[in-house]
Amino acid sequence: MPGVDSTSESARAGAAGGVPAVEIDGLVKRYGSTTAVDGLTLSCARGAVTAILGPNGAGKTSTIEICEGFRRPDGGTVRVLGLDPADPALRPRLGIMPQTGGVPPAARAGEWLRVVSRFYAHPLDPDALLTLLGLDGHKRTPYRRLSGGQQQRLSLAAAVIGRPELVFLDEPTAGLDPQARHACWELITALRAAGVAVVLTTHQMDEAEKLSDHVAVIDHGRVVAEGTPESLTGAERQLRFRARPGLNLEELLAALPPGSAAKESPAGHYIIEGQVGPQLLATVTAWCATEGVTTEDLRIERRTLEDVFLELTGRELR
Amino acid sequence: MSTIATLDLTPRPGAAPLHRMVLAQAGAEIRAVLRNGEQLLLTMIIPVLLLVGFSAAPLVDIGGGPRVDFVAPGILALAVMSTAFTGQAIATGFERRYGVLKRLGATPLSRAGLLLAKTVAVVAVEALQVVVIVAVALALGWSPHGSPLWALPLLLLGTAAFSGLGLLMAGTLRAEATLAGANLVYLVLLGLGGVLFPLDKFPAGVQHVLGLLPISALTSGLRTVLGDGGGFPGGALLVLLCWTLAALALAARTFRWE
C-alpha cells in the first residue's frame, strides 16, 4: 500500500520547522516490577492527527503523560516540538486534556475556563468555545454538577484555549453522547485544518478511522502496527458469512482459486480472503449448497480497524 | 454548534505576563474561599463568635483590664492560622487529590507563580478578616495601646510560617488525612497557644515549650505590640522566622504535586 502511505509521509515532511511534533525513541517506563512502556518508538507529524490505539493497560496514558512532562521516562528519548518534555518553554505551546479531573469541583465552568484563558497571551474567546462545545447553558454550573460528557468537553476546551501548536487528548470522547462526540470530532478536524498537531488516545476504532492521519496500535508497551487507517485495514475485501460450526475449510479451499484463505473465527463465523468478487461468491455459495450448508449474513466487506486491532492485540479481555 | 468557522484555531502560543496569570489564579482562589461555607465558618464566623463570646462573658481569668484587649490580638492570630494554615492545607490537599495542581502544571503558570497566587489569595482573605475582626473588637470597646505598625511584620511572618506548615501537610498526606489533621492542629493550637487561655495558667515547664509554638509567638507578639504598647517584637519574630524557614524548607523537599 505504498500509495496510501505517501500521504502521511508528505504530511510529515510538510511539518513547519521540520521537527516532528513528537518523536519517541525506545521509550521505557516502569512502575515497580511492571513495565508499562517497553521500548516504544513513534513519530507524530505536525498538522496531523495521530491516534494511539490500544487495549486497557497497553501503555497509552503512560506514554502520553511522559510527552506532557508529567512523568519522567526510565529509558529512551522523547522530544516534543524538538524539546525535552519537561522544558517550561513548552507549556504555552501545548494543550493538554487529561483523562479525568484537573478542575476544582466547586469551580464554575465559565469562570474556570476564563481563568485558564488568562494564562495565555492570545487565548480564544472562552464564551465562543463554550458555545461551540454546547456548554453555553452551563457557564455558572459548578464542575461537579456537570455530566461526565460536559466535564470532558470543558476539559477539551481548556486544552485548546491557549491556541497551542500541539494538543494531547487522552480519550477525548470517552463517555460522550453521539452529538457531543460529533462536536468534538468537528473541533479536532478544525484544529488539524488550522495546522495544529493532535495526538489522541482512544479505544474507539471509528474515531481513529475517521479522524486520524496516522494510527499507532500499541500493546504491552510497544507499537505493534502503525500507518494510515487505510494502510492498516488493507485494500483487500473479505467475504464473511455465518454457518454451522466446523465446516471443512480444506475442502472449500480446494474449490477456490489459488491464493485464497479461509478461516473460522469465532466458531460459526467464516472469513474468506483472496480475489473477492462475483466468481468467488458463486463458488462459495455453490460449495455450501452441495454440502447442504445454510449460510446466513453473507456479505463482502473491507477489514475494519477493529478487525486489525483484535488480530494484533488478541480477543481475550483484560 | 456551527460557530467553528468563527474561531481562529491557528496556533498562536504564548504565555501571559506573570502578573496577569498570578492575579487570575489568586482571584479564583479568593472566590473559592468566599463561596465555601466550611471555609467561611473557619475563617470568619468562628473567630468572630469567639471574639464576641470571650470578650462579653467572664469565661477565662485574664488578670485585670478589659477582656476584649486580651482577646482581640489572640483572635487576629487565630484568623491568620485559620486561613494560612487550616484553610490553605485543606484546599491544597484536595487540589492535589483532584489533579488540579497537576493540570495547572500543564499551563504556563509556573509552580512559583502558583505559590505566589496562593500567597496573594491568603493575604487578601486575611486583610478581610482583619478588617472585620478589628471592627467588631472596636465595637466591643477594644482600645489598642501600641503601634499597629509592628503588628504588620508579625502578621506577615505568621502567615509565612503557617503557610509553610499547611503546604507541608497538604503536599505529603492524603487529602482526607490533611482535612482531619489540619482541623485537629487548629483546635490543639487554639487551646494551647495562648489565643484565649493565657499561657501563664500552664505549669512553668510547659509554658516554655508552649511559648515556642508559632501560634504562641504570634499571639504573644501581637499582645505585646497592640496591648502593652511594646516596641520591636524581636523574640516572637525570631520564633516565627525559625518555623517559616523549617516548614518551607521541608515542604519544598517533600511536596508531591500529584
Verbal overview:
The complex is a heterodimer of chains A (318) and B (258). Chain A has helices at residues 2-13, 60-67, 109-117, 126-132, 148-160, 178-193, 205-211, 229-233, 249-255, 278-291, 305-313, and strands spanning 22-31, 34-44, 49-53, 75-80, 94-97, 166-170, 197-202, 214-219, 222-227, 237-242, 261-264, 269-273, 296-302. With 318 residues, chain A is α/β, with parallel strands linked by helices. Chain A has 2 domains: 2-232, 3-Layer(aba) Sandwich (Rossmann fold); 236-302, Alpha-Beta Plaits. Chain A has a 6-stranded mixed β-sheet, sandwiched between helices. In chain A, helix 6 (178-193) links the parallel strand 6 (166-170) and strand 7 (197-202). Chain A is elongated and about 75 Å long. Chain B has one domain. Chain B is elongated, with a radius of gyration of 20 Å. Chains A and B meet through helix 3, helix 4 and helix 6 of A and helix 1 and helix 4 of B.
CATH class of the largest domain in chain A: Alpha Beta
Cα-based radius of gyration of chain B, to the nearest Å:
20 Å
Q: Count of helices of chain A?
A: 11
The rounded distance between the terminal residues' Cα atoms of chain A is 32 Å
Kindly, what is the distance between the CA atoms of the first and last residues of chain B, rounded to a whole number of angstroms?
Answer: 35 Å
Rg from alpha-carbon coordinates of chain A: 23 Å
Low-confidence stretches of chain B: none
Note the total helix count of chain B. 10
CATH topology of the largest domain in chain A: Rossmann fold
> How many strand elements of chain B?
0
Largest interface: A-B, 51 and 39 residues
Q: What's the SSE pattern of chain A?
A: HEEEHEEHHHEHEHEEHEHEEHEH
Total separate domains of chain A: 2
Q: What is the β-strand count of chain A?
A: 13
Query: How much of the residues of chain A is beta strand, in percent?
Result: 25-35%
Shape of chain B: elongated
Structural category of chain B is mainly alpha
Q: What fraction strand of chain B?
A: under 5%
